Amino acid sequence: MLRLFVALDLTDEVRQRLAGLAGGVPGARWTGLESMHLTLRFIGEVPEDQAMDIDAALAEIRAPAFTLTFDGVGMFGSGRRARVLWAGVERNEALAHLQAKVESALVRCGLPAEERKFSPHITLARLKDAPADRIGRFLSDRGLFRAGPMPVDHVTLYRSHLGNGGAVYEALREYPLENGA
Ligand code: 3AM
């Protein structure tokens, strides 16, 4: 079985900027530079033959390249159940269009449809018992964060290797987006 997800890579410049947001929250496990990405669709564990179908389906996607602008920070969960600190992206039709194409390609491969609304973000940290006041300060201090525009010219299929030190992500294949020129 392979544990897979589809994501957008970030440029080194954007990774550095996002990494610069880290700090100041006890109980936060910050995402390493090498692990930063924007998930389009978590797939989960699939057998190898289905992984090959998924690869073929992703390779058939035709969608235009675009740029992404990063905007602000937020969190998933609240109070004692605060789970994730993230950086957001500006509303982006091309991103929504691409995500919808990825979703329909995966459903055609036999995966169950994603029930949850797509909420594009980059995970900055996972939280465990982080004090609410420090989370609040993080969110207000970093609220004006902006980065980009960053060009997006491919989609990546990642494999996630779960281990004691957290997941390690391996890029399996890149699928180019189409240039308008
Ligand atoms: O890109 P982020 O960090 O938001 O949390 C996991 C990570 O998201 C998420 O998929 C991305 C790559 O691992 N993920 C892991 N297990 C998941 C699940 N069961 C999941 N998303 C949805 N359902």
From TrEMBL:
The active site is at H37, H121. Hydrolyzes RNA 2',3'-cyclic phosphodiester to an RNA 2'-phosphomonoester. InterPro entries: Cyclic_Pdiesterase (IPR009097), RNA_CPDase (IPR004175). Its EC number is 3.1.4.58. Keywords: Hydrolase. It comes from the Bacteria. It catalyses: a 3'-end 2',3'-cyclophospho-ribonucleotide-RNA + H2O = a 3'-end 2'-phospho-ribonucleotide-RNA + H(+). Belongs to the 2H phosphoesterase superfamily. ThpR family. This is RNA 2',3'-cyclic phosphodiesterase. NCBIfam families: 2_5_ligase. It comes from Azospirillum oryzae. SUPFAM superfamilies: LigT-like (SSF55144).
